[in-house]
Each structure stands twice: as C-alpha cells, then as structure tokens.
Design goal:
Layout lengths: L1 H8 L4 H17 L7 E4 L5 E4 L1 H8 L1 H17 L6 H17 L5 H27 L5 H4 L1 H14 L10 H7 L9 H19 L2 H10 L1 H6 L4 H27 L11 H11 L11 H20 L7 H15 L2 H14 L8 E2 L5 E2 L1
Antiparallel strand pairs: 1-2, 3-4
Helix pairs in contact: 2-15, 3-15, 4-10, 4-11, 4-13, 4-14, 4-15, 5-6, 5-8, 5-13, 6-13, 9-13, 11-13, 14-15, 15-16
C-alpha cells in the first residue's frame, strides 16, 4: 500500500487528480447536491442532461482542446504559445466569413472549418518557424500574434461583428437532437482519442519528449527537432481552429475582442496543473485535460458561491497558486518524508538461533 501511494505521488497525474478531488470534496461539503445530474427538456423539446457536472465538462471544452495542443508545444519547445486565444479568434473569423458567403449547409460548415484550420495552421507554423528555426523563445515569438491576432480577426470580416444563424450550427454548439450530451463534450472526447491514438501508434510522443528533454542528443539520434517543433505548433493551430469554431457555434457570432479572451493563460495553467513540467520533456495529455476541468470546476464553484464576476480571476489565482504549490516536487517530497516519519514501522528485533546466527 505504501509503495502504491509512493508511486502515485510521483505520477504526473497526482497533482490534477488531487486538485480535482479537493474541489469535489469541498463542493460536496458545501452543497451535497452540487454534482447532481438531471434530465431536462431544452428549447427544441429534446431531453438532455443538465447540472453542474455537465456545465463543467461543456464549459471546459475549448480549454481542454487547447490544453492538448499547448501540452505538445510545451513538451517540445520548453515554452508556451500565448497567442492561442488570438489564433482561435482568427480561425473563428474565417469560419464565420465562409459561412456568410454561402447558404449554411453541412458541406459548407465543413468547408468553413477546413478553411479555419488552414489559416490557423499557417499562423501556428509562423510561430513554430520563429521558435524552431530562428531559436526565439516561444513566449516572445508568440507575442507578435498575441498583439496583432485579434486585429487580424477584426479585419477578416471587414470590421464587423457578424452573426450566423442556423440549426446546424446550434447542433455543434449545443445539442444534436436525440443525443442528451452536449456536442462540444463529444468533440473533446473524439479529438482527445484521435491524438492519443496518434501518439500511441507512432513515435511522435517519444520524439516530442526527446526533443524537449535534450534537443542536441535527440538530433544526434536522428530526430529532426525542427520538424517536431513545427509539428507541435501546427497541431496547436488545429486545436485553435476547433476551439474557435465551437465558440462561434455556441453564440452564433464572432466578436474578435471577447471570443475566448484570456484562454491562453488558462491553457498554460491547465498544462501546469496537469503535472507537466513547463520547461519541456515528459508530458501527460490526460493530466492537461483534467487540469482544464479543474479550472472550469473552480470557476463554476466560485459562481455558485456568489463571488462577483469582477473578483473571479483573483480568487482563481489564489486557489491555483495553492494547488500548484501543494503539488510541487518539494512539497510532495516533504509529505512523503513526513509520512515515513509518522507511520514508520518499528524494526523487528534480531534474534539468534541455536547456532548463534541471526534470524528474524
């Protein structure tokens, strides 16, 4: 039992699972019905699941997808892309622009999404080139798009804040008739499974970790570090396109100033809470996704406690600092030392047998 606990304490999932457990216990003490799941009828007359747990999973969808891409960028480049919110705004603007030019049908929605993916990949490759080829620190390289991205999103639609209305879009942003689970949750599951399978059945995960741990050694072993970094940034571009399209589908419009505002900070926090080292190397996509749910659960909890919206960020910062510090290697090492000291088994007395040899 002690060995299992020690092994779990050293696992990358220890921090996010501990944080999630802490929030669950706190909410159950505060309100025993906080995580209750009910079935209600939505505006379209369909039976759907509702409750705080659905709100957490649904509300964290865009963040969870971006956290997956941010994890790969962090692992390979030893830094973070702070322009993902702006990239998602650009992708969302392209998505809306294509929809506005045509009658909204499923093929047009698919074409709009592919167009947003292409644009987001181009901007992701731009950031990746600055990092991989020109050796610019990722946060500085992505600062360019962070500053200019939302203005580019504004120009794409001619300075307007256009709306797009279609039942098909509402299916993407809310519920598909006959399916009681919100569509964004299903998208997260499918995308997460796709990336996990890609890492499992290819060497991409191994190469990403190798480049992040020691780029020079990875290069000597035949790994193209430049390609791996560029690939991680393009994957993050796809994540931005998916998140931007979901966000547009939820509300039926694109507002370049507010869409997914500050989500890049939450994505970085999700990676940190997920037990991933922010200086690259070994990573856990599962931990990052759990970290995204922890952040959303914290937000829902604070709203349930009637904390003013203007103070939410300050409270989130305090709680997240506590979670990260508690889960830090130094605190975990001290906790293990304290456990061993308090619950150390007494040493068995040595006895001698008839031949005078020690026996237990």
């Amino acid at each position: 039992m002690a060995n299992a606990f020690k092994k779990f304490a050293k696992s990358q999932l220890a921090i996010p699972l501990f944080a999630l457990l802490l929030l669950i216990v706190f909410n159950l003490i505060r309100d025993v019905g906080f995580f209750s799941l009910t079935i209600t009828t939505n505006n379209n007359g369909n039976a759907v699941f509702s409750g705080n747990i659905i709100s957490i999973l649904n509300g964290a969808s865009e963040l969870a997808i971006l956290a997956i891409g941010m994890t790969l960028v962090t692992a390979s480049s030893k830094g973070q892309d702070i322009s993902v919110g702006a990239s998602a705004a650009i992708a969302g603007s392209v998505f809306v622009r294509v929809l506005r030019e045509n009658q909204i049908t499923m093929p047009i929605i698919l074409a709009a999404f592919l167009a947003s993916c292409v644009v987001a990949i181009i901007f992701g490759a731009f950031n990746g080139t600055l990092v991989a080829v020109f050796k610019i620190q990722p946060m500085i390289a992505s600062l360019i798009l962070f500053s200019a991205g939302r203005s580019i999103a504004y120009w794409i639609n001619g300075g307007a804040t256009p709306t797009v209305e279609s039942p098909l879009l509402s299916y993407i942003g809310s519920f598909i008739p006959g399916i009681p689970i919100p569509t964004p949750i299903i998208i997260v599951i499918l995308f997460g499974a796709l990336v996990s399978l890609l890492l499992r059945f290819t060497n991409l995960g191994l190469y990403t970790q190798a480049v992040g741990i020691n780029e020079k050694s990875a290069r000597l072993n035949g790994i193209n570090a430049v390609f791996i970094k560029l690939l991680s940034f393009t994957v993050l571009g796809v994540c931005a396109a998916i998140s931007g399209s979901i966000a547009v589908s939820r509300i039926g419009l694109i507002n370049h100033e507010t869409i997914l505002l500050d989500i890049e900070m939450d994505a970085i926090l999700a990676v940190a809470i997920g037990g991933n080292a922010l200086n690259g190397g070994k990573f856990s996509l599962t931990g990052s996704v759990i970290g995204a749910f922890v952040i959303q659960a914290l937000t829902i909890t604070l709203y349930a406690m009637k904390i003013p919206s203007t103070s939410i960020k300050a409270y989130k910062a305090l709680v997240i600092i506590a979670i990260v510090v508690i889960g830090s290697p130094i605190v975990r090492k001290y906790a293990l030392w304290l456990r061993d000291k308090l619950f150390k088994k007494p040493a068995k007395a040595k006895q001698t047998d008839e031949n005078g040899e020690f026996a237990l």
